[in-house]
Amino acid sequence: MDMSLRARSTVSKQASTSSDASQIPLLPTNNNNNNNNLVPDSSERSPVPRPSVSQRALETTANLANLLPTGTLLAFQLLIPIFTNNGSCDTATRPMTLILLALLAFSCFIACFTDSFKAPDGQIYYGLATFKGLWIFDYNAATASGVPSELNKYRVGFIDLVHAVLSVLVFVAVALRDKNVVSCFYPSPNHETKQVLDVVPIGIGVICSLLFVVFPTRRHGIGFPVTPDRR
């Protein structure tokens, strides 16, 4: 009787020991395999898409907006959505938008003929460059601060005319890249018109960027930054 009880207790202990051992999770035996599973393979990573040539050209055209007068560019960004009704023009808003674009283009043209000088007291005064020299806007205040003796060196030159034309072309390129302007004048363009609207601003941007480098200017008129060592 005692032997049978001992045998049963021994069998039950062995069964419980085996069941407990089966519940213990097995530890990994190969560390290299686990490390390979944790670290992703560099060959499986998707390559980063590079910008296309057209995207780079559009970025270059967008950067040309920095060559426009700050006030004109700000007025364009604020007024165009209002005048075009966010691109939904009608018979009344379309002529108004055209007149606004003409005025902004004229402001870009005339701003290239403005210049500035720094008085001895540190005040900056602006004027309009003419064929005889600089016509100062606030002449009385400039006289009190100190007007440069040689105003004829500010007279209009050939480079001023080149920059004025280039500024108008840059403004046209920026306007053609604006979705509200395009939707206003070309709500449903055909394939040929869409190609022209995509190619013309890029061509204007590339040509104007080259001409701005070939014909640099020293003028810092209205809407353009003035360097500390300005004349």
TrEMBL record:
<feature type="compositionally biased region" description="Polar residues">
    <location>
        <begin position="7"/>
        <end position="22"/>
    </location>
</feature>
<protein>
    <recommendedName>
        <fullName>Protein DMP3</fullName>
    </recommendedName>
</protein>
<feature type="transmembrane region" description="Helical">
    <location>
        <begin position="158"/>
        <end position="176"/>
    </location>
</feature>
<keyword id="KW-1133">Transmembrane helix</keyword>
<keyword id="KW-0812">Transmembrane</keyword>
<feature type="transmembrane region" description="Helical">
    <location>
        <begin position="196"/>
        <end position="215"/>
    </location>
</feature>
<comment type="similarity">
    <text>Belongs to the plant DMP1 protein family.</text>
</comment>
<dbReference type="GO" id="GO:0016020">
    <property type="term" value="C:membrane"/>
</dbReference>
<feature type="transmembrane region" description="Helical">
    <location>
        <begin position="64"/>
        <end position="84"/>
    </location>
</feature>
<dbReference type="GO" id="GO:0010256">
    <property type="term" value="P:endomembrane system organization"/>
</dbReference>
<feature type="region of interest" description="Disordered">
    <location>
        <begin position="1"/>
        <end position="55"/>
    </location>
</feature>
<dbReference type="Pfam" id="PF05078">
    <property type="entry name" value="DUF679"/>
</dbReference>
<feature type="transmembrane region" description="Helical">
    <location>
        <begin position="96"/>
        <end position="114"/>
    </location>
</feature>
<dbReference type="InterPro" id="IPR007770">
    <property type="entry name" value="DMP"/>
</dbReference>
<feature type="compositionally biased region" description="Low complexity">
    <location>
        <begin position="30"/>
        <end position="41"/>
    </location>
</feature>
<dbReference type="GO" id="GO:0005737">
    <property type="term" value="C:cytoplasm"/>
</dbReference>
<keyword id="KW-0472">Membrane</keyword>
